[in-house]
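Below is how a single chain appears once it has passed through the pipeline. First comes the sequence as given, then the structure the pipeline wrote out for it. We keep one example in the README because the format questions we get most often are answered faster by looking than by reading.
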Amino acid sequence: MSHGQGGPGNWVPGGSNTPDWNALAADAERRRGRKRTTTIIISALATVVVGAVVAFAIVSQSGDDGEPSADGGSSSLPDPSETPGGEPSFGETTLPPLPQPREFISDADKDLAPFEPGEFWAGDTMEIEDRSYAKAATHAATDCAEAASPELGTALADHGCAGLLRATYTGGGVAVTVGVAQFPTEEDAVAAREAATGNLLALTGGEAPTFCQQGGCRTTTNQVGRYTYFTIAGNADGSPDSGEGTPAQQAARDGNDHAFARIIQRGEAQASASASALVEERQNSQD
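Resulting structure:
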């Protein structure tokens, strides 16, 4: 049996009156395939048109030139800070920058810890690398000049020295007095260091030996934040020291390092307390 290439009415005259169901099914499937293809093409075109409309709307809102701003966004897109109320719609989730130790040892308004021998010279020893010195005496002077030679005393007073703490350490046949002077500002401390001549007076008496009374002692002068610090070191038996690489010379350097470490520790302790207060305040505000 043969049939035409058209629809169901194209039977050949004289042929069977029974429809060819296989041919009808194949023909219907072809029509459905053409319909699906047309639908897909129309949908794709619609998507392209919608995308073009949205893109045009975005460009239209971004301003005339559409140039990006310095922070990578469009120069005329709304800023969250310009929304009603002047605040972003989301809550702050990060802490402000944590305070740094240097802030405290440089600013009298923040550097509020007591400046006294018992706390500043905490501990019974001065440990520097493998060298150990025992603490023998401490002293606090509100009149800084009384703990310094006349030349150094004048420089300290001229720049507003508010107090000077001393501690004497002994070990290995030598003794060293370490002194730390506090000033109103970092600028005052720098000026005092630059003007410093003379020397710190050795702190003797009690368990501290009498030393540096006949000259031949080693001294250092330095500054950090609003503090200047000094050392004077010599032989514990009072004899003058001379030469290079002597125990007294090393003791002066060790005392310098110890003073610096104690000042930095003072800043770290206050910075840590301030950071803890910030964290607690944030936690309380979220409860």
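Residues 8 and 19 are 7 Å apart (CA to CA).

See the next section for the split statistics.
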